[in-house]
Amino acid sequence: MKKHLAQLLEQAVQRLQEDGTLPAEASVDIQIERTRDKSHGDFAANTAMLLTKQAKRPPRQIAEQLVAALPESDKVVRVDIAGPGFINFFIDPKAGFSVVQDILDAGEDYGRSTIGAGQRLLVEFVSANPTGPLHVGHGRGAAFGGALCSLLSAAGYDVHREYYVNDAGRQMDILATSIWLRYLEALGEAIRFPDNGYRGEYVKDIAAELQRKEGERFRIAAEKVMAELPADAEQGGDKEAHIDALILRAQELLGAGYRDIHTAGTEAILADIRDDLHEFGVGYDEWFSERSLTESGAVERALARLESSGHVYEKDGALWFRSSDFGDEKDRVVRRDNGQITYFASDIAYHLNKLERGFDLAIDVWGADHHGYVPRVKAALQAFEHNPEQLEVRLVQFAILYRGSERMQMSTRSGKFVTLRELRDEVGKDAARFFYVMRRPEQHLDFDLELAKSQSSDNPVYYLQYAHARICSVYRQLAEKGLAHDPARGAQAIERLTEDHEQMLLTALARYPEVIETAAQAHEPHQLAHYLREVANAFHTYYNAHTFIVDDEALRNARLNLIAATRQVLANGLAILGVSAPEAM
What we know:
Among the domains are: about 1-90, Arginyl tRNA synthetase N-terminal domain (Gyrase A, domain 2, 2-Layer Sandwich); about 95-115 and about 455-575, Isoleucyl-tRNA Synthetase, Domain 1 (Orthogonal Bundle), CATH 1.10.730.10; about 170-265, no CATH class. The protein has 23 helices and 17 strands. It has helices at about 1-20, 45-55, 60-70, 100-105, 135-155, 170-185, 200-215, 220-225, 240-255, 255-280, 290-295, 300-310, 345-355, 375-385, 420-425, 430-435, 450-455, 460-480, 485-490, 500-510, 510-520, 525-545, 555-575, and strands at about 30-35, 45, 75-80, 85-90, 120-125, 160-165, 285-290, 310-315, 320, 330-335, 360-365, 390-395, 400-405, 405, 410, 415, 445-450. α6 (about 170-185) packs across α7 (about 200-215).
């Protein structure tokens, strides 16, 4: 209906331009909104106010001219002008019935839009370092990113889903060294495990698999490994210096074997992450390797471009990017005094690569602890003369998981954390995904395990899925009574759905395409989650107030058409959020 009304206004503007009432060059972004107060009509437009400056006339006068120029429509029974110049449309109640047939005809395609047609978007999300299993904090980014991609696709955008694999850098070296030390322990070497190593059981599992495949190939005596290392933290020293020295020792003693251990660790954890995300209903078009940036020379080429344009300088033996010239709070190191490039240097090359691949917009979904990275990455894009608005960063607050009154700890390094897989096992994929997307990602989220597992109307995902299952149960009851649904007969009697609960449900269903477009343009899947709860509430209220399988055949089939359309909208919306629509519960 919004599109229909917008087309009417577009034609009215064109007519006024043709007769000289409005300037030929006048342009306006026509916006149609649903009214909150039905006494003001069903929809309202502020088109007259938007044209005031161009037309150089009072908005109410423009509104009167627009209304007079509106084409006839059998869907509109009245048009009023309110306040300073709002144009209010009163819709023929009969027009609202058509949504049922629209939904039944379109099926899974109902609500899909073309507003994003021709726009290529890259969405990078999760991108957790492959140093351990995904935990519940990563799960929120996965649920948000997956739902966002599906929502954008439903709105017609060309979406590329990407996972940035941080398979280079110091954290991966710490992991590789941790695996090697656990491998040596498994062989009986008396190794003191470093305070800053990765301690999770998964490290021991990878080490055990390494031993099974390679035997004693990487065995080196503990005395040689530990000789003359700087003191660790527990020994009164510096844990960072100690682990860095151990990494160098591993590289020196193992030679090419170090790369084999590094690769084995990365591949093992990445395989686990891929499987975990697949079971969570999240997939990618590309897994982009950070290592590929360094090995292909992309990082050095990016730094060379910055140097040639005067955006870097040397200080204290390091190379610095002048990010403060572009609004960052301070300049940033891109190459350390030891010659190693920083994570930020790789990020510069990676984001340059994104835009050079021709994407209109790159959306990064990052943990909230990365907020300081936003201005520096945008600064780098500006230095390359790219529009920084081509990068949008959504910061995801870590979900705080509670089991009863106990807050669960999440520390990958210590190995004491609740994994995403454990969360799925406890509450299920559907509850996890829906709970994660109920709020804006920037908002704090306490994840209530007991609520997520409960089978009550207080559990929003259960309430939603139960609405879908309840509709399916009506059709089972119909069959048990020896009756069949006749959609054609229902379509003929659709205008008999005049009860308040029926009208509320019809209005809610008609809003679905609008919600898809609005939520997609705002990049906010939670809008869809809230909408689906409204539809479920409207259906449950209808179900509790009326009988569907009535003796009146025409009314029965009309009501069955309505709830069939409701079931389709619930299924379509839940699919976008990555939640199943069960037929029985």
